[in-house]
Design a protein that fits this description.
The chain is of the alpha/beta class. The chain has two domains: 2-95, Beta Barrel (Elongation Factor Tu (Ef-tu), domain 3), CATH 2.40.30; 107-258, 3-Layer(aba) Sandwich (Rossmann fold), CATH 3.40.50.80. The chain is 20% helix and 35% strand. It has helices at 26-31, 75-81, 118-129, 150-156, 176-184, 200-211, and strands at residues 2-15, 18-24, 37-41, 52-55, 58-60, 65-71, 88-95, 107-113, 133-140, 159-164, 171-172, 192-197, 216-220, 236-238, 244-246, 253-255. The strands form three sheets. The chain has a seven-stranded antiparallel β-sheet. A seven-stranded mixed β-sheet has the order 11-10-9-8-12-13-16, with helices on both faces.
């Protein structure tokens, strides 16, 4: 864990209400791996009082920089939007346990819902560097939230499937619909690992699908957290064995098949 003052290189709008902030943070960039997060202090004021956790969206080790993808939804992210090029931000990271990329499989399937797509870009880059086949399923409420062109998506992964609830990009509906078709295909190989991140309802449905799969499924969980280092224990999730795991230190990536699912 590194506490670092990061130099903001850019804070750019990529879609309505969505932004990517690029921060020069050599120590964190060098130490990060996919699925980890940083705890960001947005400003020096007491409002907002607590740091905010953000998945590491991308890393450029050659430029000593990290990127965070965020959406303006509350006071904290509204203030974050005002951070400009040349400003500095206080970071703690990289935190948590990320995705296991050392599993000996050839095919990887990435499933992102909404802002859950954030950590999957870093993961896709790492998997491609390892020579893995990368298949992406990306769903969003509005098509404009899928902010990459088809050409850009083709560079990120080998193949992709898109859905939007408003029907303006990809198929109409939820990303779990085409995923079910994919899993039902007899050509679907067990030589596959699934990585996912998204809203709780999506993960609940994926957990049900995972139970009938022989493959490994890993989920990056999105939970509110105060400290980010396991002290406050406010981000506990119940496991099937009756124990609790903390998203900030045991996760955020946890075996999806081990999480208690009440329905």
């Amino acid at each position: 864990m590194i506490k670092e003052s990061g130099l903001v290189e850019a804070n750019e709008s990529i879609a309505s209400g969505m932004f990517i902030i690029t921060i020069e943070a050599p120590g964190i960039a060098a130490a990060s791996y996919p699925g980890q997060f940083v705890h960001l202090r947005i400003n020096d004021n007491i409002n907002p009082l607590l740091r905010r956790p953000f998945s590491i969206h991308k890393v450029d080790r050659g430029k000593n920089s990290i990127q965070l993808l965020y959406k303006v939804v509350g006071d904290g992210t509204k203030r974050m939007r005002l951070i400009g090029e040349g400003d500095t931000v206080d970071l703690i990271g990289p935190l948590g346990n990320g995705f296991n990329t050392k599993i000996k499989v050839n095919r990887t399937v990435l499933i992102g819902g909404g802002m859950g797509i954030a950590p999957l870009f870093f993961l896709a880059d790492e998997l491609q560097n390892l020579g893995k086949e990368v298949i992406l399923f990306w769903g969003a409420r509005a098509g404009q939230e899928i902010f990459l062109s088809d050409e850009e998506l083709g560079k990120l992964c080998g193949s992709f499937t898109l859905t939007s609830e408003d029907g303006t990009r990809g198929a109409v509906g939820m990303i779990t619909d085409p995923l079910k078709n994919y899993l039902a295909d007899p050509d679907h190989s067990n030589d596959t690992v699934f990585y996912c991140c998204g809203p709780r309802l999506m993960l609940k449905e994926l957990a049900q699908l995972a139970q009938s799969s022989k493959s490994d499924w890993y989920a990056s969980l999105e939970e509110r957290m105060a400290c980010g280092i396991g002290v406050c224990q406010g981000c506990a999730v119940l496991m099937k064995n009756g124990e609790y795991k903390l998203v900030c230190v045991d996760g955020p990536v946890i075996n999806l098949k081990e999480i208690y699912n009440d329905g």
